[in-house]
What does this fold into?
Amino acid sequence: MITGIGIDIVHVNRMRRWLNYPGLMERYFHPNELNTALSRGNRADLSFAARFAAKEAFGKALGTGLSGIALKDIVVINRHNGQPEIHVFGNALSELKKNGANKVHLSMTHENENAVAMVVLEAI
It folds into this structure.
């Protein structure tokens, strides 16, 4: 049963600006996400934008937003085949359990100046 759906779009230029502020990315992204995105060189902004959109979409899927949830507790990783997935910890995990979901589906894309993510929460 689907317990929530969320979608978000992020303008890539927002991430380009954030990259100019020391420490700001560390505030929102888990070290694994930072390493993955920065390893993409001049495409790091696209990776950050898609991951940030995924975090926002997760909050929307919960139906509660991200109030009280540290964004670093929502971690977007890529499987060996490139498929993205979300892992949650701390308050993000608590909110997911309150929602009744035990499976998180994630799709992300980016083109030119926009990144989009969609999250579906499911109780299996």
Observations:
- Strands lie at 2-11, 74-78, 84-88, 103-111, 114-122.
